[in-house]
Amino acid sequence: MVCSLGLGSLVAPGASEPSGAAVPPACTSTALSLSVVRAPSLASAERAVVLRVQNRSAAACVLSGAPSVFLRDTTGTALRVRYSATASPFVARSASPRLSLAPRASAYALLAQYYCTPGVERRAARVAVSLGGALSPGLSASTSLLGRLAQCRGPISGMGQLVGVSSWRASVRDTYATAAISRGTVLVCTGPSSWPTRHVSGDVLRAISAYYAAKKLTPATVPSGTEWVLNVVAYRVGTHWCLNADGGYGGYSGSVPATASAAVMVLVRHRAYPVTQNSSSFVTLAQVKGLWRVVGEGTGP
Q: For 15-27, b where at least 16 C-beta lie within 10 A, e where not — what string?
């Protein structure tokens, strides 16, 4: 599902300092205010929020790299998660590590986390941000939006325990790790109601059965008997952007390999997952070298 976000109102006037110009001093916590912005909903497997800092001082200052972030629950206890500015597939890595903020300009950093497949143990309620690597002095904010991020059940080494932190950027859109296909012309957002459909093939059904048999969640059926045909380019692996009817940007993540010759999405009914009790999934399959295999699964298209 694609969520609208009017990026025009969020793009900050701050920009990287020009070559040869005097470099402003580093931003300090006393010069900035911190707030949390709702992030576009991308893949159903991803949970994200955006941090926004605004320069409240009368002089320009510079932000460098990615912020140090600390998430806490409603009791103030730190979440047992891992933070990384380089290991997450969801966030933009620092190509331009220095961002100059003019007075009243804003900068943004994305916090993104994989869905807690084993279930949520504790949700975030407060975030502390350090600009220079140490927790104090720093900035903090508390909002229900942070509840999208959580400490998952299970060991800290689990996939869902990794919180990606982007470098500071001049717009929300730039905080995402955008796939190459999404650069340049922005396409119009589409959804299942406009996707072409056809009768689900036997090869696709066999791939689905094998996938859920491995998970011990059979029987798996396709009640509609149909599949949506996906654009393999628009749904390649990575984050993509599109334009909604209201003029705002939407975002979604693709899971189709670049080597795929065809891709489909199917609504599958299966035995319920033990923890979430979810028994209905939108499954993406790709055809690579003539063979169909599952490349994505989520609770929404």
A: eeeeeeeeebeeb
Backbone angles phi and psi of 288, in degrees to 5: -125, 120
pLDDT digits (tens, 9 = 90+) for 235-244: 888 777 776 6
Tokens 């290991």 correspond to what residue?
87
pLDDT digits (tens, 9 = 90+) for 281-301: 999 999 999 999 999 998 888
- Secondary element (H or E) of residue 50: strand 46-55
Over the Cα atoms of the chain, what is R_g? 21
Count of C-beta atoms within a 10 Å radius of residue 60: 19
- Look at the pTM and tell me if it is higher than 0.70: no
SS3 assignment, position 9: helix
Q: Do residues 88 and 107 lie in contact, with contact meaning Cβ atoms separated by under 8 Å?
A: no
Burial label, 163 (beta-carbon count in 10 A; 0-12, 13-18, 19+): buried
DSSP 64-106: ES--EEEEE-TTSPBP--EEESSS-SSB---SS-EEEE-TT-E
Q: How far is CA 228 from CA 240, 259, 266, 284, in A?
A: 19, 19, 6, 9
Q: Where do the structural domains in the chain lie, given as residue ranges?
A: 7-177, 182-298
Residue 282 gets which letter from DSSP? E
Please count the CA atoms within 13 angstroms of the CA of 126 that sit on its side-chain side: 10
Q: What would the DSSP string read from start to end of 123-175?
A: E--EEEEESSSSSSS-EEEE-GGGGGSEEESS-TTSGGGEEEEPPPBSSSGGG
40 vs 153 pLDDT, higher one: 153
